Amino acid sequence: MLQHIRPALVLLIALALLTGLAYPLAVTGITQALFPDQAAGSLITLNGTIAGSELIGQSFTSDRYFHGRPSATTGPDPADPTKSVAAPYNATNSSGSNLGPTSQALIDRVKSDVESLNAGRRTVPADLVTTSGSGLDPHISPQAAEFQLPRVAKARKLPETRVRELVADATEAPLLGFIGDARVNVLRLNMLLDAGPGR
């Protein structure tokens, strides 16, 4: 019986070392060598301090900043840990709202958001009133940035042409020129605004 157990144990230990130790260490080492920024979380630093990540949105509410997509993430209620409350861009609880197109709560929220944004009776870009699947999307479309541009320029007392240049600087082209859509990283754009005149 020992002659059957010994090879099985040796194989179990060898596979555990290979798949549980050697492979993860190799993959981690390769990614840190080839893609150090991405392996470290794609962090954005400002004056030596971490300002955020390129991959996780942040909540901006001031008129002086571009706003990202709404976030549907939640967190524990400080008053009652058995309940959840809205916690925008909570990276520890990435999720969408799980509300479908026939949900009255979703319809009411989107209508309310459209009404609050639509002061000039312009068409509101969909990504300014809909959440992403993760609730953490750090990007908006160039159309969403253009929609917000007059408000930001007015709040910062900057010419719209100057703010439009900053939007162009923060716009990322589709991957390889054709995969996906052009997008604007909201954190990077707001950092460009803060670094320039009118801050």
List keywords for this structure.
extended, 6 helices, 7 strands, two-stranded antiparallel sheet, 3 domains, three-stranded antiparallel sheet, alpha+beta, 199 residues
Structure description:
With 199 residues, the protein is an alpha+beta fold. The protein folds into 3 domains: 2-36; 42-68 and 138-199, no CATH class; 69-133, no CATH class. The protein contains 6 helices and 7 strands, in the order ααββββαβααββα. The strands form 3 sheets. Strands 5-7-6 form a 3-stranded antiparallel beta sheet. It has a two-stranded antiparallel sheet with strand order 1-2. Strand 1 (43-46) and strand 2 form a beta hairpin. Helix 4 packs across helix 5 and helix 5 crosses helix 6 (186-195). It is extended. 20% of the residues are buried. The mean pLDDT is 84.
